Amino acid sequence: MTLTRRQAAGLNARANPLAPEIQAAYLDGANELSDFLELLRDDGAVIREAKLVLVGEGDVGKSSLLAAMCREEWNEGRSSTHGVEIKSVTVQDDGEVPLVLNGWDFGGQPQYRSTHQLHFTAPAVYAVVWNPRRGPEVSKVDYWINLIKNRVGDSARIHVVATHAEHDDRGPWIDENALADRFGPMICGFHHIDSHTGQGVDGLVAAIAATANDLPHSRRRYPRTWSRLLKAFREGKDAYLTYHDYEVRAIAEGLTATGARSLARNANALGYWIHDDSDDEHSLVIFKPDWLSKAIGRAFEAPEANAHYGLISLERLSHAWTHPPRPDEDVYPPALHPVFRHLMQKFDISYQVTPSNPHQEPEVLITQLVPSRRPPLTAWTDYEPELSTMTRYCEVVEADTGNRFIPEGFVYQLIARFHRYSLGRDDHTASVHWQNGMVLDAGRYGRALITVSDQRITIAVRAAWPSYLLDRLTGDICDHLSFWRGLAVKVFLTCGGDCPGNRAGHGRFESQAVLNSKRQGVALTPCQTCSALRNVDELMHGVTAGMDPNVNRFAAAVAEILQPQFAQATDTINRHSSAIAAKVGEEADATRAAISQAEVGYRSLIRSLDEPARNGPRLMTIAPVGQRALRRRITTVTIRVTLWCEHSRLPLHVLDGNGTTGVYDIETPRKWLVNARPWLRATSFVLRTLLPVAIGELDIALDGDARWTSLAEHLKSAEKALEASTDIVGQTGPEAGRDQDLQRVSGPNAGPGEPDQALLRTLHQILGERDPSFAGMHRVQERERYLWVHRRFAGEYEYRES
């Protein structure tokens, strides 16, 4: 199968069960997908492989079992695994090529569990290993199966393996029927083996191979050149190479420079290698992914980090990596240390903190080691008590049972994930966090208290307009938990003010039920705490329509911006635009509320276009060129597309200062322009509203790179372009046109004619043929999402040492 780049750009296959390397190429963009499919057609060969994951408590015999499966000699003094060991088990069966089981043996110590979950994927075969001498309860067989189910979902396939089968003695009894009934087809078999004598090992390998053969994509085509290079590096002595040296080797093996880059990205996505994919000259390709897990384990065990609740200087952290505590462990050369720190931050394990003393050695906070005791919360209780406070609850439940379940290490990961909001971002000693919560500060957008208790997450925000920060934190938490396929998140709104049941602030209303009531025209909905009826419109205050999975999020976001309430926020910002842009004086609560309201609209619009953003930018203004576009009889029109940076929220030509960067005149069907009109108007409106905020923030980011006077002139030109881009309503006039557009996306006529993501995909195809680089914009990744930014801001999304 092959696809042209235009066909690949229009493809939406995120939910399709693609082979892992095709999925990785798809997520990397239309060009990568098209190139990979072409390579697969010309150079593909059949491979058979599957991932085998061994989990269980420490010292139950996982490492000895994997060694026995690989037919290694018995090692009486084998030490416990710290981190992960990776070995391949080759199975010679009746297939045309051997089956390769890529075995991942995870250390069972509790401190590693939150990081090991990153490697639990589907499709894969899992072996839950337990020691009958300890019994199934002490070996936590039920815990490990449940952990796999919640992380991977019910598509996981599990073999339960009892070790130490001396003389075929089955030891303590395990209720196989109960486990099979509870977990259904996830449980593929129960086995009793002895790694020392080899008893039962061959039968286990055969059973696992049979399960692997039934996994999706265990047999598939893979490029021969890629397979050869993967094998060469797997069998070679190099643990890592600089990207330059890797590229030289790859080209010598027959790959092109583009193919080498694609393989490095793909192998990183599949867990074969580690590659940070930066443009830095020190970029590395690490061929031993188990090194990262072991390096993290070394950081967890560092005495300084444990003595100071996770704080450790870069010097002492490097010392831990170059001085192994056990003689049989690896020494990690200093060239790897920045990469390890970058990946630890990327995986929400740690982050670099700002020391209180500027002359102090830079430090890293390993969040898993933060204090267990809650500190004083005066930073929350004393913060602007006159402002509004809104609260939401998130209940994380098992999708099949409805039981509440908070993943292990969840709060630690949130502390790292939200470190940009930390009270200690300028001085770490001001941070407020502990094992079950944190206080966050988002400047003009307010302050938040997040706590976890009774398997429930509580998010409270105090701000002039709490909805923005509350939506953002709730959305980020839900995104983070989406990593767990066997879990679901229920978001509950709370009542405020007067409560008929005299429990103000304690009422709980499931957000989806409230949204359903609103959509069906139901005025009242019952409280789940006191059963009192509350007004749906009051509960909906600050709830974005984009939260409803049953609506077109794109159309809902457009409608949100075109509502009259948004225009009121715009008017408030415009009255204070000069002060906002120049950051002069203290912003009034009304101004902060208006900015937050505008940010809600902007975020909803951008997030609704996440899927097509993998192939091209989504922030742009568009205006027809001349009056010809307003004539009803013509079939094509000329439009002027101006690309904007999604980081600074300013046009590329303003940032470059040349007036033409990212500006294109292109031909498009008039029907496209008519259908896109609500989206174009909403985009122009929200960008124009937030221009003063963008100016103020950019003044800091530029740090003298451009003078205020020069930037102001550029922004005046951008403002005129924005005004022009709204003038596509024919003879009806701007106000009537806005009302028409609002009716199209939210009124009784909304539906088939409402805007959708296909509008942006079509534009990407046209622009991509004109300029595949999109004016040199950089596609960067912020968590799970892509952003398109001007080159000067690309570094904001890469790991930087202080």
TrEMBL record:
Keywords: ATP-binding, GTP-binding, Kinase, Nucleotide-binding, Repeat, Transferase
Any GO molecular function: ATP binding
Signal peptide: none
Organism: Allocatelliglobosispora scoriae
Keyword Heme: no
UniProt entry tagged with the keyword Kinase: yes
Recorded superkingdom: Bacteria
Pfam families listed in its UniProt record: COR-A, COR-B, Roc
Roc domain mapped to chain residues: 43-229
Region: Disordered, residue numbers: 730-755
EC number(s) stated in the UniProt entry for this protein: 2.7.11.1
Protein name as it appears in the record: non-specific serine/threonine protein kinase
Reactions performed catalytically: L-threonyl-[protein] + ATP = O-phospho-L-threonyl-[protein] + ADP + H(+); L-seryl-[protein] + ATP = O-phospho-L-seryl-[protein] + ADP + H(+)
